[in-house]
Each structure stands twice: as structure tokens, then as C-alpha cells.
Specification:
Elements (H helix, E strand, L loop, with lengths): L2 H24 L5 H19 L2 E3 L3 H22 L4 H32 L7 E7 L2 E10 L8 E9 L5 E11 L14 E6 L4 E7 L2 E6 L2
Antiparallel strand pairs: 1-5, 2-3, 3-4, 4-5, 6-7, 7-8
């Protein structure tokens, strides 16, 4: 079992079960000021991730999102317990979503998540330097073992010296049957960032074939 699969079960089953006892325990023990700080940290992490800024690697952010999911459920119990319907309604919606996700995970996800979690596990990591900068590209494979057509996604990040953060500069999909690139030997794939006054591109090369994508 991979880390993503185990974390998914903990999040959608374990945290759904533990959220109400935790709410009861922390109720009236957490000050409004502390709650605001927690929500600010959660919102900041989500906003930075949406802008492409994350901590190096996948697992740390996956874990943080899992914890944030638990915080949101606990917050939902708090909203439902208020006397204001404007707060109760979003609380009910959040708890309904959490209940459905937990039920689906129990009924189907225990088996399906084994397959689905593979899509979030990088099966190949490429680290390279271009124009004096450090980059890392992580490859994810989508498709069943019996399928002839496998979809590959490549997430490319720029790393910064002495900082535990990375910035996503590109996300590219390839179909193994529709691309001229050969993915059967992933170790032979070469990546390069072309950055000049007139060009800002990411180049994928296998054997004599290459694919170039403009970067924003």
C-alpha cells in the first residue's frame, strides 16, 4: 500500500469518525483568536497551492490537505451548533459532503482507491538544471495495466536554493498512443527549459523525437 492510499483512508474514514469527538473535546477550549489564526494558515496554504507554490514533493502537501479536511469538518460541527441559520446552512453542506465522501470510501473506495491513488504517486522523477536554475519534473501514469493507451502527466517545478518550496511552471499530458515520444524507457527522457529573451519553453526529448511547449 502506498502513502497516498493509506492517507486517503485515514482522511475519509478515520477523520470523519474522529471529527465529532475532537469537536466535543476542543469546544470552548479554542479561543476565537486562535481559530482565526488556524483558518488564516489553512486559507494561505490553499491559496499558495492554487497559485502553484508548494512545499517540495507531494507528500507534505497531501498531508496538510488531509489535516485541513479534518479542521473543516470540526469547523462544520461548530457552525451547525450555532443559532444563526446563515452559519448552519454551510455547516450542514460541509457535513453532508464529508458524510458522502466517507460512505463512498467505505463502500467502494477501499478497493478503488488502490487504483486511484496510483494516479497521485509519481512513478518517475527527473531533476535537471537549465540556465543556472534547478528544476524537477514528476511523472504520473494514468491507466490500467491491461490498457494499451496510458496517459502520462508531467508536473514541472522550479526549485530554489536553501528554500523548502517549489513553484509549478508547467503541467503537460501525453497519450502513449498519440504522442511521438517514446515512454517505454522513461530513463531516456530528457527535459530542458529554454529561457531567453524571445523564448520561454519546456522541451521533452526521447531518442530523435522532441516536443516543445511554450511556458507562460
Amino acid at each position: 500500500m502506498n502513502y497516498t492510499y493509506v492517507l486517503s483512508l485515514i482522511t475519509f474514514i478515520g477523520f470523519n469518525i474522529a471529527s465529532f469527538p475532537l469537536y466535543v473535546y476542543f469546544h470552548n477550549k479554542v479561543s476565537v483568536k486562535t481559530l482565526k489564526i488556524i483558518l488564516l494558515v489553512v486559507a494561505s496554504h490553499i491559496a499558495l497551492f492554487a497559485c502553484g507554490i508548494s512545499l517540495i514533493g507531494d507528500y507534505i502537501d497531501y498531508t496538510l490537505f488531509s489535516i485541513e479536511y479534518l479542521i473543516c469538518i470540526i469547523l462544520a460541527f461548530g457552525l451547525v451548533s450555532t443559532k444563526t441559520w446563515l452559519l448552519k446552512i454551510p455547516g450542514f453542506i460541509m457535513l453532508t459532503i464529508a458524510s458522502i465522501s466517507g460512505l463512498v470510501t467505505i463502500l467502494l473506495g477501499i478497493f478503488l482507491f488502490i487504483i486511484m491513488s496510483q494516479d497521485y504517486e509519481a512513478d518517475k522523477v527527473y531533476s535537471f538544471n537549465s540556465n543556472g536554475y534547478e528544476y524537477q519534473t514528476r511523472r504520473y501514469s494514468y491507466g490500467f495495466v491491461t490498457s494499451d493507451d496510458i496517459t502520462y502527466s508531467f508536473a514541472t517545478y522550479r526549485h530554489y536554493a536553501y528554500l523548502p518550496i517549489e513553484y509549478k511552471i508547467d503541467y503537460t499530458y501525453f497519450s502513449s498512443m498519440q504522442s511521438d515520444l517514446n515512454f517505454s524507457k522513461p530513463e531516456q527522457l530528457k527535459l530542458k527549459v529554454i529561457d531567453s529573451d524571445s523564448l520561454n519553453q519546456l522541451q521533452f526529448t526521447t531518442y530523435n523525437n522532441s516536443f516543445v511547449k511554450d511556458l507562460k
